Amino acid sequence: MKALLMLAISLTLLSFTAQAYRESNGGKGVLTDRGVVLLDLYEASVDQPFFGGSYSEKAYWDLRLSLPKGFPVQLIAQKLADIERFSPELHLLLLMFLNDLRWEITRGELEMTDDLEKLPAVDPARLVQLAVRKKKQIFIHRPLWNIMSLDQQAALVMHEMLYYHFDARSVTGVSLPVRQFVGVLFSERSYNQLIRDGEFRHQWRKILLFAD
């Protein structure tokens, strides 16, 4: 079973490499009374991000080696464990893609990207650019990163990983499904539905794994 899974992942990766990545996109945030909130969670009305997964010591140290110092590795490991429970295939893909990504915390202000297919219901003056990805390089705005809570930082990292996964297939309309799925992942109620509701889970597997 594991061998078949790895074969499927390898074939998926081969199809990904034939596609081009967008030059520029990135995670956005909203300035609120509670601080900086990832747009994905703001739109999903997630007040308290959910982290339910348990992870191995090896998974933790593998992430420590792949992510910059100061990243909320424990929370990211928990959320990846949540994803593994939903889809082992997606979990493996994200771990493989993580090795490709390069992260840089920068003091320079980031230019607002125009990758939103649907404008969020938020005052544009409160919308901020938290990160910008150019192919495999992700730039995170340090002043905003430093005032984000650890759970919001973890959500931003997951947003960037999932966006990279989607973008590998040059899927049109990437931003909205990524934001929606991140909202599902970090909402305890929606995540439990994802695990327990077969039809809901199947719908998201089709979107995330580009399968029937």
| Spatial arrangement of strands, main beta sheet | 2-1-4
- In the predicted model, the low-confidence regions spanning at least 5 consecutive residues are 1-22
**Helix and strand element order:** HEEHHHHEEEEHHHHH
Number of domains: 1
What does this structure look like?
The protein has 212 residues and is an alpha+beta fold. The protein has one domain (27-209). It is 53% helix and 12% strand. The strands form 2 sheets. A 3-stranded antiparallel sheet has the order 2-1-4. The longest helix has 18 residues, at 150-167.
List keywords for this structure.
three-stranded antiparallel β-sheet, three-stranded mixed β-sheet, 212 residues, alpha+beta, single chain, disordered N terminus
Could you give a quick summary of the protein structure above?
The chain is α+β, with helices and mostly antiparallel strands and 212 residues long. The protein has one domain.
